């Protein structure tokens, strides 16, 4: 019986030491700025597609919104290319403002009186 208790105690101690020696978990990298811009772009594209599917956006409204999205995407790509793949804080802020503007227009166009025929 003493041997059994001694064996269990040694196993518990050795397993506790093993856990104590585990390195701390590595911190998870925070969300990168390009991922935020990319996510907003995807969400806005889904909103436009939803408006087309349910008939709340006309072809003309859709074309205008898509053109604005494409222009913003091209501008972001050009600015990233000029800065080694990154946007400056001022460029990120400008992109966010333009995305906000497009988002407001999507909302406005989806809820106006015009619908697909």
Task: Provide a descriptive summary of the structure in words.
This protein has a domain at 62-110. With 117 residues, it is mostly helical. Helix content is 74%, strand content 0%. It has helices at 2-20, 33-54, 59-82, 89-110.
Topology:
Layout: H1 2-20, H2 33-54, H3 59-82, H4 89-110
Helix pairs in contact: 2-3, 2-4, 3-4
Reading the helices and strands in chain order gives: HHHH
Number of continuous helical runs: 4
What is the number of E strands? Answer: 0
Overall, the morphology is: elongated
Keywords:
mainly alpha, 4 helices, 0% strand, 117 residues
Brief summary of the model shown:
The protein has 117 residues and is mostly helical. The chain has four helices and no strands. α2 runs antiparallel to α3 (59-82), α2 (33-54) runs parallel beside α4 and α3 runs antiparallel to α4.
């Amino acid at each position: 019986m003493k041997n059994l208790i001694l064996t269990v105690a040694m196993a518990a101690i050795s397993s506790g030491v093993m856990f104590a020696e585990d390195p701390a978990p590595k911190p998870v990298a925070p969300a990168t700025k390009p991922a935020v811009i990319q996510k907003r772009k995807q969400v806005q594209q889904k909103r436009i597609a939803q408006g087309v599917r349910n008939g709340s956006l006309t072809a003309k409204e859709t074309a205008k919104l898509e053109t604005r999205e494409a222009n913003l995407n091209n501008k972001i790509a050009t600015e990233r290319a000029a800065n080694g793949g990154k946007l400056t804080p001022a460029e990120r802020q400008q992109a966010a403002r333009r995305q906000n503007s497009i988002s407001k227009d999507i909302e406005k166009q989806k809820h106006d009186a015009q619908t697909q025929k």
